[in-house]
Write a structure and sequence with these properties.
Elements (H helix, E strand, L loop, with lengths): L1 H19 L10 E6 H6 L2 H9 L4 E6 L12 E2 L13 H8 L4 E5 L5 H9 L5 E4 L9 E3 L6 H14 L6
Parallel strand pairs: 1-2, 1-4, 2-3, 4-5, 5-6
């Protein structure tokens, strides 16, 4: 029941976002990453972003399905961190979402209402993610598989340089 309310709220917010979104022309200094927990297990995304893009200030939050067995962590969010309207209720995750990162990377390649909702609600100025997830969420989509993070970030770096959002 809760998920259907969140989905309805998500679709409404997505439509509003499409109509009002303005693409930032500012240079990138701060980076936020929203990823799935399974990807985070085998790739240390923040290290790769710092190395390939040459940027510090990388903050990451990962989605994992809720389990009573999991210890709460400031690095993870679950479906329990959203209310029935799809709004973020966990104060630490909400702080991350409300932070106006210069760049947000949606590092997941499968549809997931909670990951997509987090990207949509993010106050980031420029959003990038994988192709074929939800093109309405991102300013740039990159066609790659998550295991090839070097390739994904190298491609992203090319686009950011072309757009004068990153110094060469």
């Amino acid at each position: 029941m809760k998920k259907s309310f969140i989905k309805k709220s998500f679709k409404k917010l997505l439509k509003q976002n499409e109509e009002q979104r303005e693409i930032s022309q500012e240079e990138v200094y701060t980076v936020g990453v929203i990823a799935s927990g399974e990807i985070y297990k085998w790739i240390k995304i923040e290290n790769e972003v710092e190395k390939i893009l040459g940027l510090g200030n990388v903050r990451i939050y990962n989605y994992r399905p809720y389990s009573k067995m999991d210890v709460p962590s400031y690095k993870f969010f679950t479906e329990k961190d959203f209310n029935w309207k799809g709004e973020v209720k966990n104060k630490y995750f909400k702080s991350f979402i409300e932070e106006p990162h210069d760049l947000l990377i949606g590092y997941f390649n499968k549809n997931n209402l909670y990951l997509e909702n987090a990207v949509l609600r993010s106050q980031a100025k420029f959003k990038v993610g994988f192709a074929n997830v939800n093109q309405s969420l991102y300013d740039i989509e990159i066609a790659e598989v998550p295991t090839k993070i070097d390739s994904f970030l190298s491609e992203l770096k090319k686009y950011l340089i072309i757009l004068n959002k990153l110094k060469n």
